[in-house]
Design goal:
Layout: E1 2-4, E2 9-10, H1 11-19, H2 25-32, H3 42-61
Antiparallel strand pairs: 1-2
Length: 72
């Protein structure tokens, strides 16, 4: 779905920017140009960023780690 009509940025492009290393709305904005014209899409863009970052954090928290550590 298009998030920013002015620059033609989709929610998929925002997610891709995050998967490629962007860690904040500011970084996504710089990478994609979202909300750089009229700014009406900023709230929706921030929501997509928040949801995506939360999803990534939840997935990382679910990664099992060994219970015991041994000294080398």
């Amino acid at each position: 779905m298009y998030v920013c009509l002015c620059t033609g940025v989709t929610d998929g492009q925002i997610r891709d920017a995050i998967y490629e290393g962007c860690c904040s709305y500011k970084e996504v904005r710089q990478a994609t140009g979202v909300a750089s014209q009229c700014g009406k899409c900023a709230c929706l863009a921030k929501e997509v960023v928040r949801e995506t970052l939360t999803k990534i954090q939840s997935a990382q928290a679910a990664i099992p780690y060994p219970v015991e550590f041994t000294a080398a």
